[in-house]
Amino acid sequence: MKPLTPNRPYLLRAYYDWLMDNQLTPHVVVDAFVEGTQVPQQYVKDGQIVLNIAAGAVGNLQISNEFVEFNARFGGVPQQVILPMASIVAIYARENGAGTVFDIEDAYLVDDEVDSSLSVVETNDKAPEPTDEPPKRRSHLTVVK
């Protein structure tokens, strides 16, 4: 008998649709250290990041059997986010917590073998040099209606 495919992508799409149909805001909990995960590292806490994947918060959302991909802004900076299915820990509604935590599936366990379909891309992004200038002050102007 042929082994079953993982059910996580199917459950993720079903929960996403259910939450959106009920006017709730779907959030996913992501393990940021899974190989192939592309998220803004400055927002990762304790190895995880929570992302709002509602249609109004992201662009070009695609949930395939292998990845969740979308474009989003973090601190005003547009970024492409790539989440392998193995990195998705849970999906839930921000408003009431409705959702699920996914079971560990054999298909997503890390082997010692290297997957040739994924590769690591090295970047030469360097942090800006610190300057001796004092931080900019907040504007003293206020909005009057």
UniProtKB/TrEMBL annotation:
Residues 120-145 are annotated as: Disordered. This is ClpXP protease specificity-enhancing factor. It comes from Shewanella vaxholmensis. It comes from the Bacteria. SUPFAM superfamilies: SspB-like (SSF101738). GO terms for biological process: proteolysis. The keyword Hydrolase applies. Keywords: Hydrolase, Protease. Pfam families: SspB. InterPro entries: SspB, SspB-like_sf. The keyword Ligase does not apply. GO terms for molecular function: peptidase activity. Residues 123-136 have a biased composition (Basic and acidic residues).
